[in-house]
Amino acid sequence: METETLNRSQQLQAGQLWRIEHGYVHIVEVGNRLVHYKTLRHPEQRAAVTRMIGLGSLLRYLSECEGVLVG
């Protein structure tokens, strides 16, 4: 499994899975200003509440938590 660190110029895309210090963030849908995402404890987890946040806020959160793209 390859990983790459968060880059500001990198675009978030639906279906991406980010590993953070206490779990995972799954990107469900990306709009112009908002992102729908799920926070997971395990990458195989299916049942989770979908939340919405601003695009800039999520990028800042991923960089602060040293998010790594799992792919």
How would the blueprint of this fold be written?
Layout: E1 3-5, E2 17-20, E3 23-30, E4 34-40, E5 50-54, H1 55-64, E6 68-70
Antiparallel strand pairs: 1-6, 2-3, 2-6, 3-4, 4-5
What does this structure look like?
The protein is mostly beta strands and 71 residues long. It has one domain (3-70). It is 14% helix and 42% strand. The chain is built from one helix and six strands. A six-stranded antiparallel beta sheet has the order 1-6-2-3-4-5. A hairpin with a 3-residue loop joins strand 3 and strand 4 (34-40). Mean pLDDT is 87; it is low at 1-9.
Which key features would you list for this structure?
71 residues
Number of helices: 1
| Uncertain residue ranges | 1-9
What is the total tally of β strands? 6
Return the domain count.
1
User: Which class best fits the helix and strand makeup?
Assistant: mainly beta
Assign a percent range to the helix content.
Answer: 10-25%
Mean pLDDT over the residues: 87
Shape type: globular
- Main sheet properties: 6 strands, antiparallel
Give helix and strand order, one letter per element, not per position: EEEEEHE
**Percentage beta strand:** 35-45%
Strand order of the largest sheet: 1-6-2-3-4-5
Distance from N terminus to C terminus (CA atoms, Å) equals: 6 Å
Rg calculated over all Cα atoms: 11 Å
